[in-house]
Amino acid sequence: MGALQKVSGFIMSPAMKMLLILLAVLFPLAAGNEYQIYVMALAFVWAIAVYGMNIVTGLCGQLNLAHGAFFAIGAYTLAILTVDNGWPFWPAFVAAGAMGALLGFLVGVVSLRLKEHHFAIFTLCVGFIIYLLMDKWESLTHGTLGIINIPAPHGFGLVDFTETTPFYYLALVFLVLSVFFASRISHSLLGRTFLAIRISDDLAASLGINLMRNKVLAFVLSTTYAAVAGALYAGMVRFIGPAEADVAHTFDMITYLLVGGIGTLMGPLVGTLVITWLTQSLQSLEEYRMIVFGPLLVLLVIFSPRGVVGSFTAWRARRRAAAREQQARQTASEKVPPQAGASSIKKGAGNHA
């Protein structure tokens, strides 16, 4: 259980969870302008995809370099169904998640027979193939022109998701659901199974774990997260192109995960928010912002390899261990009988006399 907590991150109290949700709900009221609300909503969408990567990479230990391509699959599925086929948004949204799961299963069954860097290289090739299909298959994907006029999510009553603030709350709801399911997975028997596979395939096999089945399951869960995030992204920006499948997006998500804390519960969210807002704050530097951002990222990886959340978890664990040790010493000293101490003093005085 201790090892699982190291992977899943610290367990927040219900009060802390409610406080974070309350702060997120109140953010639009404190934001300086609508653009800040838009950036935060966009960060929420990317965080959902990063949670998917955390399942297959952080929990199961399989580095999927096609994760950004599955994000694009979700976006393109929704765009093609709504723009070219006239589907309503929400049925197309469900279909996008199902497409991510189906293609994730097909790719996972083939690619997960490989291990370590061979698996990573294979998925990198899969991601590039998906990018080429989106770029060259003009009759389906519109090629380099992309797909425009993607409809926003259908609202209800007075709620209009074409506006920034309502969409922000929609993205927040999906993010909360994503974190909830990720928490349930990481603290369940399935999460322990993924952890055993991450530690060692041989160890997991010796425990009777079906390696292929569980690896494919982790892969499908991660690609479903990515496709759902991609569908939300398409409904938010209203335009997509082949660049959405670029491998650069995959490496961006890996960066978010490393900064926040790979394998931790809150790491994907923290890393995404930190990098997103740091990038926004450095926009005034234009092309020189990477000169500042790059060294900061390198320093973080060197001095905090566990990420922000992972380092905080380790610090809190050391602090609790020190407190327990001090309490144990204090308890041991209190258990010494005072009579025994007094008799020893009297005995010593008699010998002296």
UniProtKB/TrEMBL annotation:
Location relative to the cell: Cell inner membrane
Region (Disordered): 323-353
GO terms for MF: branched-chain amino acid transmembrane transporter activity
Short name of one Pfam family: BPD_transp_2
Cited InterPro entries: ABC_transp_permease (IPR001851), LivM-like (IPR043428)
Transmembrane spans: 42-60, 65-83, 89-110, 117-134, 167-185, 216-241, 253-278, 290-309
Source taxon at top rank: Bacteria
Major localisation: membrane
GO cellular component, one term: plasma membrane
Membrane topology: Multi-pass membrane protein
Keywords: Cell membrane, Membrane, Transmembrane, Transmembrane helix
Name of protein: ABC transporter permease
